Each structure stands twice: as C-alpha cells, then as structure tokens.
C-alpha cells in the first residue's frame, strides 16, 4: 500500500466518532476545511497528532446527491437483507465509485462521514475499495477492530471502560480484557454447547466478507455467483453438522414450517452502536409473524414466503423457470454445454432483484426469511426494538436459527441437485493415475489430529473510543495443530500429468453411532482442500500443508499489521489485496472432534486438470480462500460443479458393484478413503 492508500485506513477507525477525534493511536487527525463539528474538549491522554490529513471542501459532494443513503438512521442496524437498505448502499457506493484514486476517495468519504449510518459507511467504502482496480493493493482491516461491539459482549467492553475510568491518567499501558469461553448462554440448553463455534469471530468475519464480495442488488454479476451462494452456505451447514456430531448433538433440522414457534431463542448481548442501542432478542418459542415495518418501508407475509417456495419447488421439479416475459427457461446442470441451472435458481432464491430471472414472481425467499426471523420479536415496531442479529451478515451466524434457516435453503437446493442425473463412472474415473497411499502427519504422529483452544488479540480501541486509551481484547477460539497430507500417487502414463487433488472430510458415524450410507453422508462432506500438482511418470510423493488449504483465509489483518506492512512494493502485504481477506478462518479448518478421539474419514479424488482448468487471462489470485471466494475479476477456477463429486446422487454401480457408501467411490484408482481420528484436547494449544 502507498501512503495515500494507507491513509484510507483511518476512515475505518472509530466509525461512530466525529472525524475531529484523533485516529491512528492519536497520531492522525483529519482536518476538514470549513467543518462545523464542535472542537474536541476532553481528558484524553493521546498526545497531539503528528499527521494532519487536510480535507478540502468538496463542492461535488452535497448531501442531497447521496440519494437514499441518508435514510438509514445513524446508530441503528444496517441490513443487506432489506431492499431499502440495499438501495441506500447502492446510492452511496455510486457516489464513492465516481472517485479516482485513494486520495479522492478519502476526501469524498471524509465529507460524507457522520452524515450516513456508520455500518453503511464502512460497507460502502469497503465495497468500493474492493472493486476499484487502482485500490487493489489496499487490504481491509479486520472487521473485529472496526466494530468490536459486534463481536465482544457489551459487558466485556464496559469492564474495559470502567478500568480506564479508575486508572491513573498518566498510565499508557493498554488495558487488556479477555473474552474467554463465556458465551451468550449456559449449557442448560443443549444448543448453547455450540456457542463457541457460532460466536467465533472468524466465522462472522468470513460471512461478512463473503457477502461483501458477492452482494445482491448491487449490480455485481460475478462468474457463478449464484452457485457459490449455494455452495458456500451448503459447506457452512456441513461444517456446523460436523461440529454438532463432535458434541454428540444431532444434525441441524431445517426450518420449513413458519407457522409454529421457533424453539430456540437468542440473546446476543451485543450492541449496535456506542449509544447503547442493542440488537433485538428472541425468546424461546417465538412465533414468526408477518413483517410490517412501516418505518423501514418493508412488508412481507409468511404467505408470500410459502408462495415463493412453492413456485421455486415447481420450477425445480418441472425443470424450468418462467422469465418475466412468460418464457420457459430450462434449469439443469450440464458441464459439457456449460449450462448451470443452479446459478439461475440461486439468483432467484437468494434473491438478487437484478439477476433473478423473474423477481416479481419468485420473490425474495431467502432475504425475507432473514428479515422475518430478525424481526420476529417486534415485527411491526410496536416496541421500537432493533432487528435481531439475523439481519446483519456480520452477526447472523451467532444465532442458532441461522443454521435452521440455511438448512431449509440448502434443502431446496438439494431438491434441485437430486434432479440432476448422477455422474457416470466415466466422469468420476480418471484412468492412468492411482492414489497408492495416503497419510496425515501432525508433528511426528500419523492420522490423529489435535484441536484445542487458542486466543487472538484485537485492538478494540481502533473501533471504539475509550477516551483515547488503547484497549486490547483477547478472544478465545477453537484451533488445531497444523498437519500435512502425504500422498503417494502413481502416474502410469509416459508423460507428466497435471491433476487436481480434491480433499473432503466427514465423520465416519452418524449421531446414532452407525456407519453412514452414501446419501446420508453425501452433504456432510466438508471441503478441506483443492490443489493442482504435476505428476511425473511413475511414483510421486506429494506433501501438502493444512495451512495452504484452498478454503481458508490464513489470518485477519489488524490495523497494527497494516500500519507495519510498510510501502515496499515487493512486500507480501503490498502484493496482497483485499479480496484475500475472504475465506474460512484457518483456525476453524478442523472440527472439534472429541476428547477420546472421534472417527473421521478423509476422501481424496484426483481429476484431470485438463478438464478442470478454466482458460482465462492471468488474474490476481489469493494463495488461499479460492474454493469459497473465487478469484477477483476472473472466472471460478474449476469447471466442475462446486462440491463435485458429492453434489449429486451416485450412479447405481461403480466397477460393476452397487454403490452403497463413499468407500465404493474409492474403489476407483483415482479416489481414496482414509480413516483419521480428531482429538479435542480441551486445553490451550501449544502452537509453533
Ligand atoms: Cu449468508 Cu443467508 O446468506 O446469510
């Protein structure tokens, strides 16, 4: 990042405070020409800022030009699941998109700062940074530091403030508060045993970042966007189930009856803004109701959801959708012809008002489902309560109902997937290559993975003002010891062969302790990695580290990381870019397992890279995260349907024998199944 790009970062600090508060740990001050914000009078300890960022008056930025961007009240929640909020985002992004270069964007954004909702502001500036070629080397700071109150309970943050109030004013040491394993509920309710997973900061950041890259209603039409919506969320549910089975809980049940009370409530204990506005809470056994929020300008009935669901299921079972002109549009997946019905279906189900084949007819089932659930405690604003966490992509994954809703969404996609013809043996096979042997090695131990607890520090004082004092929060999270896959592969040909290696993980037994057949295990397979290797003729020993997984984002970059990255154009930070912030958190790659060890299976499959390969101009690609996030300004780098080979039902026979379970796929030379055990150490991990 160059200096001007780095200065943009300061707009991500203290999003709820006026710009005349120092940022950059007191070293940076925005100076707005003709600004009428009252000057700062306080007992802050920060010294006088050494960097002054002059922001001239901009005649080209008038508040009336912001369209509906000012319609969302400051300090309230911002939801991408609400069409009116999406319109506001589009209006603000359009203004920011007209800027050229980091300095111009900084000046325009600084002029808008304080006049629009804070979450909307951060969304819009992130959106624009991500899409402007000249800003590609700008990395976004961790969302945890921008909005700590979305990740850390109000009580923990208040404790930090109380300690500051009682401290010697001259003390400059940071205040450190820990957010340990006390999550939002007790184990009295079995669902709360998973709180550590649902309330993990990394998962929420991933979800926020993913929806930032693949938004609806923003005119963003990326390659296979709909299919990736299906796949990323399908994998999210698979991983949730892996965690549930680790804890001895049954797999998540879909929420498909919206006329009965929802068993599990949720009390997030988080605030939306520094004015103390809190997210709405949901009591146990709350009955979903029609959504009638006049002040937001949005209304939807449960009957609407039911009608849309029924139309979508008709389309799935009939094999076609009806476009706005009444034409029948076939939906099916056919790799050879490049037809991807899943994309058409997903854009109509999510739904993207611009990309849906018929928005008025198929509606907005998924988005309005989020809204009905987010507002079920106060659907008509009778209590003037804020939406619940289901309304925000950065918090929705905390609520147990998120998974029940997305299990329903996925179930609808699976209806479609089951309508597709099974892969043939020929499509699954790749003759000429063989997986001879596979092993997983952690330290010097084979086939036993370890999980346990770890913690990560974030500067909460970058996002919230604690009278200018540094506050560090330490967040406890699940983690695992890194490991390597070892594959013994044989290329029987006479020339080198490029192959794609696909790796999946699933529990060996179901919640009843029984071995699963193919169909029961099919959508539990969690992608662990996908990579390409060149095999020389004969034997090849391939070693791959878990740290390079194609699904993960190695780490969240904090403000401090970004400030220290320097401006050396050759530095990894300078060549990395914001798209890379997307990806499943590395620390959540391995499911928890059990203290006594839990039986899992790894499934490996080699496919022909000549078929998988997508021809496209060289694009900037992140080393990680590609499976869930794609590549910026380029096509999704794998021609196969996402989730291949488990996205469809199996063929009746493989090698002349019926297919009963996944091991029957592994009878093919290019596939392999390998048993491992995952042990949860229930302790702090000693990593490095
Ligand atoms: Cu990600 Cu519903 O799409 O939360």
UniProtKB/TrEMBL annotation:
InterPro entries xref list: Di-copper_centre_dom_sf (IPR008922), Hemocyanin/hexamerin (IPR013788), Hemocyanin/hexamerin_mid_dom (IPR000896), Hemocyanin_C (IPR005203), Hemocyanin_C_sf (IPR037020), Hemocyanin_N (IPR005204), Hemocyanin_N_sf (IPR036697), Ig_E-set (IPR014756)
User: Mind telling me which SUPFAM superfamilies this protein's record contains?
Assistant: Di-copper centre-containing domain (SSF48056), E set domains (SSF81296), Hemocyanin, N-terminal domain (SSF48050)
UniProt name for this protein: Prophenoloxidase
Residue ranges occupied by any Tyrosinase copper-binding domain in the UniProt entry: 399-410
- Kindly state one GO CC term assigned in the UniProt record: extracellular region
Presence of keyword Cell membrane? no
Task: Say if the entry is tagged with keyword Disulfide bond.
Answer: yes
Name of the gene this protein is made from: proPO
| Primary location group | secreted
Please name one Pfam family that this protein belongs to: Hemocyanin_M
For this protein, what is any one GO molecular function term? oxidoreductase activity
Keywords per UniProt:
Copper, Disulfide bond, Metal-binding, Secreted
> Localized where?
Secreted
